[in-house]
Amino acid sequence: MTLRARSRLGKYRIVSRLGTGGYANVYKAYDTIEGVHVALKVPFGEAASGEYLEAFHREIKITAKLEHPNILPIKNADVINGRLVVASPMGGETLADRMTRRIAFGTQVEFAKNMIDALAYAHARRIVHCDVKPENLILFPGNRLCLTDFGISKVGLRTMKASGSGTLGYMAPEQAMGRPSFRSDVFAVSLVIYRLFTGHLPEWPFEWPPKGIERLQQGMPRGLAPLLRRGMHLRASKRPATAIVMQEKFHEMMPAFEAHIARRKRRRKKPAAST
Length: 275
What we know:
α3 runs antiparallel to α5 (182-198), α3 runs antiparallel to α7 and α5 (182-198) packs across α6. A hairpin with a 4-residue loop joins β3 (24-31) and β4 (36-43). The chain is an alpha+beta fold. It folds into 2 domains: 8-89, Phosphorylase Kinase, domain 1; 93-264, Transferase(Phosphotransferase) domain 1 (Transferase(Phosphotransferase), domain 1, Orthogonal Bundle), CATH 1.10.510.10. It has helices spanning 50-64, 95-98, 105-124, 173-176, 182-198, 224-231, 243-269; strands at 8-9, 12-20, 24-31, 36-43, 76-80, 83-89, 93-94, 127-128, 137-140, 144-147, 154-155.
């Protein structure tokens, strides 16, 4: 059942539906007590009970333990009128939406760093996200990206169950066969970052170099293309073991990124030659 605009769910007044995932509707709602807009996730159909509901409870418990500026927090989780309702801060748009318009190079670097930092934080706590994609990255003021939707996450390698869950296009081969790992997240975030910088999403069989590679070779840090190449390798053993390793490499490149940004700014300010 879809909630209508202006209908009430406890203290929340529904404004509009933002989208529909595999298990829930997401609404923009107004918190009539706190006086702020929030994003409400409300399971529907079969997802409102049984094993799907357990998955939502798992997401709540996982996310509640993650305190990082680039991971979307949960403001409140409650059962209202027999429905599980999860409220989160209201962002502006998804990275998928933002990538439909031109993004300045400095902002691209900031977005990439946000993604890797969020994932490295989760991996340090033995959490594998399993569904890293532009739609699960929410943009907030100040060009801050937040990773969300830990609904199919696995906690710790020992507790991982065979699962082909994820999103086609960003899913690592071993995850599609039911063997997700930290390296599967590395694969997905590498694809997202490649698309962010080049405007192209590599496709199966992910042969190197993919379309758009020339954009990674125009004054960017020399280590960026090799890092993404390793990250999207078909063989999991060839990839960085975790996003923590990826984070270390990316942070080492930051001075080179900053130098490249400065050069681009100088070129834009350079006056045209007089005739």
